[in-house]
Design a protein that fits this description.
The complex is a heterodimer. Chain A is of the alpha+beta class. Helix content of chain A is 45%, strand content 14%. In chain A, helix 2 (29-57) packs antiparallel against helix 6 (148-179). Helices cover 79% and strands 0% of the residues of chain B. Chain B is flat, with a radius of gyration of 24 Å. The structure holds protoporphyrin IX containing FE.
Chain lengths: 409, 158
């Protein structure tokens, strides 16, 4: 073949691709609108549940994360990770549907159109970033050198800002595209519309190009597959289907998964014969208890989930002494409003302390636990004692506890 | 795609053809842009130079990988499958390829074992290589069935 012949061949092929794209309902407004709506919903769920997770870990003066319902964080964070993972096929399908527009010529037609397209940059780049970093994070893969939480948090704001602009730009088109009767939903576009009855979608006339229904249906199936193979990390009945999840809720020491494991120093301090559990701060009488003394106080058993920020969870039975009981023994009046700081042997780590509001600390099930499922805590679960309380992210269920400090407001 | 858009105008609703504008557009553009600007400022200020470089690489790199590698690759796969396969076989094979890609994407980190820690056996507890092999076998078994059904149904129009 000569060079010109080859060039002509390539051009013919390109024309064929272009006409296929133009005829394909995969790339039309209605497909983009439906996928856009789905992503709008899933990103809103991710953003709201993500903000709740942020607030649970960084309380503000105007929002105190409640102690009840006990399983609330389990639902919100499970939803966050599950919705995020299910969005991967949605985003890929949406970007493919609108990909031809990337090459539109002229690139913009008015000032408003330019603004609209510029705002697509943070939208697309932010969306890909959120889904990638979120997924890598739950798999404990950190190929980057920035702080995951802070970057994921602010990129989420950036993406949602761009989403607001995008919704404002596309609301009209979307409503119209969704309202229009679906006569062009099949492969041959306008031809199918004439061939069909004009009401429902006409049958696909070329099996090579998927109808819109097929494209959207397979996208939904792909989201379903991702969900089915991961969501069992928090939805107990689906645990054996969670074959791609980073956790299985029944695998781990004492049948409970573990996130952080103790360093050698923590291990040494936790197993030392000198171990004392202390209650101090604004108290009448400081307590300093051996593990035996702690275990001999009036105990309490509670069924509470341990819920990781990474989206897995496990319901378990914990036995220990309630924080209220400990405070009462240290002479803190029941009428006092307190803040409680739970202190761990993880000196210098981000997890050394966690704090509890008065409501959280005085909850009937807020426990300094020493048993899990009727047996002493495994070292990886925080031996000799850990905090377990309702509705807290796992990072705040402090392990290897040496003290609680009470501050009166 | 200007030709395509011109062709689409007759059956498209008139409002869609007018392009963006109006109060809703400008209000959301201004509010959205303000949020984007604030978030970018915060991203800049919470990071050190090292993490900033890394953040820029991932923020820009992810979208670029999609637009410059992934999407063109999908286009090439569409062209190649159109060349190689009879019309009736294309959709099942393409769906099979798409599902294969998806499974590889969402299992990549697990199969590579990046997050595996010897002292924490509950993290990444499965044999993910095996899981992926089984999933891919199931996907391609389904494709094979679909191909047989498609052949029976149509007799091939190529
Ligand atoms: C595959 C998708 C996603 C996964 C797996 C994922 C995962 C996570 C995880 C594990 C956290 C907890 C971080 C921590 O506290 O240590 C988190 C927080 C968060 N996520 Fe996502 N995420 C995804 C997508 C998204 C999307 C699409 C948005 C927003 C539109 C979003 C917004 C947030 C926000 C605002 C937080 C709170 C960050 C903080 O506490 O400061 N995420 N995400």
């Amino acid at each position: 073949m000569t060079a010109t012949g080859r060039a002509a061949g390539v051009r013919a092929r390109a024309d064929e691709v272009r006409s296929t794209v133009e005829a394909s309902p995969v790339h039309d407004e209605r497909t983009a609108a439906i996928l856009g709506l789905a992503l709008g919903v899933s990103f809103t769920i991710c953003f709201v549940t993500g903000l709740l997770s942020h607030l649970a870990q960084h309380p503000t003066s105007w929002f105190a994360w409640p102690a009840r319902p006990a399983g609330l964080y389990r639902v919100t964070q499970g939803l966050h990770v599950a919705t995020g993972l299910a969005s991967i096929p949605l985003l890929l399908a949406k970007l493919w549907a609108v990909f031809p527009h990337l090459f539109r010529w002229p690139p913009f037609e008015s000032a408003a159109h330019l603004v609209e397209r510029v705002m697509l940059v943070p939208l697309v780049f932010g969306s890909v970033f959120l889904l990638f970093t979120g997924t890598a994070n739950v798999m404990h893969w950190y190929p980057w050198r920035f702080s995951f939480t802070r970057s994921h948090y602010w990129v989420a704001w950036m993406t949602v800002g761009a989403l607001v602009a995008h919704v404002g730009a596309k609301a009209g088109t979307t409503v119209l595209a969704l309202r229009r009767r679906d006569t062009t939903g099949t492969s041959a576009g306008a031809t199918a519309a004439t061939a069909g009855d004009g009401v429902g979608p006409a049958p696909s006339s070329s099996p090579a190009i998927p109808s819109r229904r097929a494209y959207l249906g397979w996208t939904a199936a792909a989201s379903g597959l991702v969900t089915l193979t991961t969501v069992g990390q928090t939805v107990w009945p689906l645990r054996s289907a969670a074959v791609l999840a980073p956790r299985r809720p029944d695998i781990g020491p004492q049948g409970v998964p573990v996130n952080g494991v103790p360093s050698a120093e923590v291990r040494a301090a936790a197993t030392s014969a000198d171990y004392r559990f202390r209650v101090y701060g604004d108290v009448e009488e400081e307590l300093s208890l051996t593990l035996e003394e702690l275990r001999s106080l009036p105990g309490h058993t509670a069924a509470l989930p341990i819920t990781c920020v990474e989206g897995w969870s496990r319901q378990a039975t914990w036995t220990g002494v309630t924080v209220s009981e400990l405070m009462a023994r240290a002479g803190v009046p029941a009428s006092a409003t307190v803040d409680v700081r739970v202190e761990s042997f993880q000196h210098g780590s981000a997890y050394q302390y966690s704090t509890m509001s008065d409501e959280q600390a005085r909850d009937r099930d807020a426990l300094i636990a020493f048993d899990l499922g009727g047996e002493p805590l495994h070292m990886d679960h925080g031996y000799p004692a850990r905090l377990i309380a309702p509705n807290r992210p796992g990072v705040l269920q402090t392990k290897w506890v040496e003290a609680i400090r009470v501050t009166r407001r | 795609m200007s030709a395509g858009e011109a062709a689409a105008v007759p059956d498209g609703p008139p409002a869609a053809a007018e392009g963006p504008g109006g109060a809703l557009f400008w209000i959301s553009a201004v509010v959205g842009a303000a949020v984007v600007a604030y978030a970018l400022r915060e991203l800049w200020s919470v990071s050190s130079p090292v993490s900033r470089a890394s953040l820029a690489r991932f923020l820009i790199g992810g979208g670029l990988v999609h637009d410059a590698l992934w999407a063109p690759l999908v286009a090439v796969v569409l062209v190649v499958t159109a060349q190689l396969l009879p019309v009736r076989s294309r959709l099942p094979v393409r769906v099979g390829l798409a599902f294969t890609a998806l499974v590889l994407i969402v299992s990549w980190a697990q199969v590579r074992g990046y997050g595996v820690r010897a002292n924490n056996p509950s993290l990444l507890p499965r044999d993910y290589g095996l899981v992926v092999a089984v999933l891919l076998a199931a996907i391609w078994a389904a494709v094979a069935v679909a191909l047989v059904v498609a052949q029976r149904g149509g007799g091939g129009d190529r």
